[in-house]
Amino acid sequence: MPTVKISDVIVPEVFNPYVVQRTMELSAIFQSGIAQRTPEFDRLASAAARTVQMPFWGDLSGDDEVLSDNNALTPVKIQAQKDEAVILRRGRAWGANDLAANLAGDDPMRAIADLVAAYWARRYQSALISTLTGVFASPGMAELVHDISGQTGDASVISAKTTVDAAQKLGDAKSQLTAIVMHSATEASLAKQDLIEYVKPSTGSIEVPTFLGKRVIVDDGVPYDSDTGAYTTYLFGPGAVAYGEGNPVGFVPTETDRDSLAGEDYLINRRTFILHPRGVRFTSGSVAGVSPTNAELASGTNWSRVYEPKAIRVVKFVHKLL
After folding, report:
1. SS3 for 186?
2. Whole-prediction pTM
3. Which of 47, 80, 225, 279 could form a disulfide with 230 if both were Cys (CB 3.0 to 4.6 A apart)?
4. From CA 319, how far away is CA 187, in angstroms rounded?
5. How many Cβ atoms from other residues are within 10 Å of residue 61's Cβ?
6. How far is CA 221 from the centre of its chain?
7. Which class for 109: exposed (0-12), middle (13-18), buried (19 or more C-beta within 10 A)?
8. What is the pLDDT of residues 27-65, one digit of tens each?
């Protein structure tokens, strides 16, 4: 019986957009609204550069003046500032003989796309967790960190009360926090306390976990200190992370190849994308290659806050478990 080969079923022009869309459907960071894709960031991710600059105007500040018929008002300037995002360039290749054999008699295009999309959904989430580690290790982010891990007893433990305290780091902007990323051990601890609720969204048939009305995303990649027992949890507002898929000049996102002598088929998939926490500039302080690794994303030397803290819409919560 003839065997289905990767080159028989992969049409790059169809495959890549489908994989991008499926990645977004499968990833909780997109479904929760944490990361939002815009045409502007698609354009920026296609730039022929390592990083892209995003100028913005600083907020207006200072006291108002009392009107007088003797003295004119004193004009003040609005300050121009700059955010900067890094373009992530990643790729992966798979040998396809075993995969192609398993796909015979099925819908190979959909099966392959689902496998690849699920892979990238995990890798995007991993890149975001590394980015958050670096962002909160950078100067200027202390105002958005709520660390109770050094306390004793219940004061050191995540609960409804201590999570409200963490959200208060954003002050009157705390209502913007709509999602929370936590370790599976944290989610299990809260579930034992009956603090995790399951809500069925208006679209879709799968119930999603929530905590204090916030969508729960479970990822064991979030920091955990085994020496102290401290876990890190992140609270997010919608659109806190800007996302864009790039297609720069000469970029080949999907291609297939075959080693006829070895009877091996290959699928190569490449991604050029931006996952940028709005308001925290990537400084490229310590990057060895053309694009940072996850370890380099996790370095505080590569990040610098440029927005006012309340405008960043991310809070880091460090705690222990009951």
Report:
1. helix
2. 0.87
3. 225
4. 13
5. 9
6. 12
7. middle
8. 999 999 999 999 999 999 999 999 999 876 666 777 888
